Amino acid sequence: MSDEATRYQDSVHTPTEVANPEAYPPRLVKSYPGAPRHPLPWPPEKSAHRLGRQLAELGGITRSQWLTPLDMLPFTDGFESIPDDDPLQWLVTRRPTPSGGARYSAEWYVIAGPDSEVPTGVYYYDPARHDLVRLRSGDYLGRVAARPATTVLVQTNVFWRLAAKYGEMYYRLACLEAGIQVAQALVVAAEEDPTARLCFPDADLTELLGLDPRAEGVHAVVELVAPVPAAFEGPSLAAFPRAFAAHASVLRQSRPAPEPLAPAPAPEPLPSEPDGEPLPSAPAGEGERISLPHAEVDLKAGTRTRHAAVRGFKAETMSIGALATILTAYGRQQNWDLPANLVEFYCVVADVSGVPDGAYRYLPEEHQLELVGEGDPRGRLREAALAALTQQGARTANLWLLPVGDAEAAEERFGPRWYRVQQAAAGGALHRACLAAAAIEVASRVHNDVLTHLLDAWLGLGGRKRSLLVAQLGTEHPAGPRPEFRLTW
Ligand SMILES: Cc1cc2nc3c(=O)[nH]c(=O)nc-3n(C[C@H](O)[C@H](O)[C@H](O)COP(=O)(O)O)c2cc1C
C-alpha cells in the first residue's frame, strides 16, 4: 500500500498554485502543421458517416454560448474580482461532454482498419475543422484491438491544459474525464457494438500516436465493430427458453464480464464528530431500504441537451420517478473492462417526494436506496462546498451523487493503475446520470470544488473507502439557460 497514487489522493483535494500560468498557451485544439488531412462530412448529423457523427458527438465543437460577467458572479462572489482588462462579454465554444474548467483537455485519436469508413491509418480528430489529421497510413488495428474491431477510438488527455488552472489536481481531472469521455462514447457509438478498455498497454499506444507520455496520457480505447448488411431475420426462439438458456451460457463464457472486486472488510467503528457526539448514520449494509419505481431512459436523448447548470438550481420538489431514472443510469454497468462494483453509488437526497432527506447508497441490482446517514443534508453539503455556485446548489438541488471507491480493493486488483480506473469509473457513473437527467429535463453540474472527504464519515465510509466527486442535480434556476447556439444538429 501507500504508493504514489495513495499519497496523491490523500493530499490533493483542491487546486494547487500554478507559479507561472503565462507559460501555458490558451490553445484548446492541437495542430499538426503540414500533415495530410481527411475531411469528414459536415454537418455530421445529416450525413450517413457514422465515424464523423460519433467524433462530433464526443469531442466536436458543437455549441456556443454568450456569457457576461454576470455569469462569473457565482464563481467569484463579486464583480470586483473580475479583472478590469477583461472584455465585458465572451462568446465561448462548448462541446457535447463536460470538461473541468472548460479546458477541453480530452482528445480523440482514431485507428482505422481496412473496413473502417476512412482509409486505413492512425489519425488525430481535429475538432476545430471536424476532420482527421493522418499521422500514419499503415494498418495498426490488430496491434491495438483486443477483439475483431473495424475501428478503434483512443482517448487521451493533454495534461497541461488542466495543469494551467488546477496545478497538481490536473491528474485527478484527467482520470475523471476519461470515464466521462468513455461513457459518452459508449452511448453515441451504440450502433457499432462498442466496448471500452481502460487496462491496455498504454505505453505502446502512446508511441504509436507519437505522444510524449509525460505530457499527454492515453487513458482508454473504444473498439467499434461496423454493422454488416442486415439479413432476413428468422422467427423468435422465445418459445424454447431452456434451449436458449443453454446456448446463452456458452456465449457468456466466451466473453465473460469482469469479475467483481473482493467485498470490503466489515466497516470500522464510525469516527465521532469533533465534539464527541457520534454521527447519526447507520453502518452500510444495515440501513433502512426504499424500493424505487422502474424507470429508464435512452441516454442518447440526453446527449443533445446536456449542459452544466450555469446558475445552479431552483429549490423545487423532485419526483421519485425522476430520481429513479437518474439512479438507474448512475448504477448501470457499462460495456467495459472494469468491474461493476469498482465504485459504489452513494447519493444525498433532499426534497424528493416519497424519499426522506438523507444520505443513501443506491444498490443497482435491487434498485433500492439504503439509508447510510441521517441529518440535515443541505447544511453538511454547504460546509463541504467551496464556491458560491456549489453552495447555492447545496441549498437548492435535490440530489447529489457521490460515487465511492475502495482504494484497497482497487489497488489489489489493478496495482498502480487503481487510482486512474477508479476515478474513471466515478466520472463515467456521473456522466451517465447527467445524460439521463438531461433526457428528462433535470439540470445537472459536476463539481470538483467540494471537499468530499468531509462527508465520508457521515456516509459511514471506513478503511480506504472515499467519496470521489459530486454531481448536483435538480430543477434548473430560471436564469440558468444561456442563449446557446447549436453549431450542429
Ligand atoms: C471533472 C469535472 C469537474 C468539474 N468541476 C466543476 C466545479 O468544480 N465547479 C463548476 O462550477 N463546474 C465544474 N465542472 C463543470 C464544467 O465547468 C463544465 O462542464 C464546463 O464549463 C463546460 O460546460 P458544459 O458542461 O455546459 O458543456 C466540472 C466538470 C468536470 C467534467
Automatic annotation (TrEMBL):
Q: Which Gene3D superfamilies match?
A: NADH Oxidase
- List the InterPro entries hit by this protein, alphabetically: Bacteriocin_Proc_Enz (IPR052544), Nitroreductase-like (IPR000415)
Positions of the UniProt region annotated as Disordered:
1-25, 256-287
Compositional bias (Pro residues) at which positions?
Answer: 257-272
What is the designated name of this protein? Nitroreductase domain-containing protein
In which organism is this protein found? Answer: Kitasatospora misakiensis
